[in-house]
Amino acid sequence: MNYTLQNKRALVTGGSRGIGAAIVKRLASEGADVAFTYSSSPERANEIAQIVQTLGVKALGIQADSAEASEVVAAVERTVSELGGIDILVNNAGVLAIAPIDDFTLADFDRTIAVNVRAVFVATQAAVKHMQAGGRIINIGSTNAERMPFTGGGVYAMSKSALQGLVQGLARDLGPRGITINNVQPGPTATDMNPPEGEFAEMLKKQFMALPRFGTVEEIAGMVAYLAGPEAGYITGASLMIDGGFSA
Length: 248
Ligand code: NDP
Known about the structure:
Elements: E1 9-12, H1 18-29, E2 33-38, H2 42-54, E3 59-63, H3 69-83, E4 88-91, H4 106-128, E5 136-140, H5 154-174, E6 180-186, H6 199-208, H7 217-228, E7 239-242
Parallel strand pairs: 1-2, 1-4, 2-3, 4-5, 5-6, 6-7
Helix pairs in contact: 1-7, 3-4, 4-5
This protein binds NADPH dihydro-nicotinamide-adenine-dinucleotide phosphate (NDP).
């Protein structure tokens, strides 16, 4: 393995399962100490922390609901105090609510915005207070920011499109400080949120994808690790697709 992230301190939101857990493991395998948040899976969080510790780096699982701004700020502050700083922030935690317009509840609308958009801003604002030049912020957006080809997904797509505008603007704030901010936009990726088998999955593969398969969490984590590393220092304000051609 390549230890390009040795001595770096990272925080990944939503690191107990799925894409976030793969990102935690990948950053740790490249030498970073890694804190991560979770909301409702303490057992899964403990498992991930134990795996990370076997890699010889520090691991810190923090229970924090991304919908609560005070909990997000507290998670950043705890990362800084226990790991000694923060160099990499990965805003991964996200929720997906799908329903036709007539049935979509305002509670689901508000939760989608709170977790998928507001928490990204809140964590970023808290983290950059402590970040030095060379800092990296990476958000997990979605290919649905640019293409939402089925019904019921309008609010989710809106939340991920919002991240595109956010990184374009914040890149200007953070560029002079030597900090980059980008979105990674996965296509269908095999997780609890998006199981790779079943009627819906088959429809996606057949009708919408150039590569007729779901992505793996490790493939997404690889792009995040690249953006977190030293070779990606000239990339900022970008939204990078990793979607099997879903948006092609
Ligand atoms: P999963 O549902 O498999 O995992 C979600 C993770 O986020 C869990 O660790 C969960 O923790 C955490 N989480 C959820 N809500 C909160 C919250 N309110 N506060 C803190 N943590 C929370 O999702 P994926 O891994 O599939 O998705 C990760 C990201 O990737 C999301 O932003 C999603 O929108 C995006 N994405 C996913 C795609 C896919 O096909 N899977 C495609 C494109 C984008 P806990 O278990 O403790 O609640």
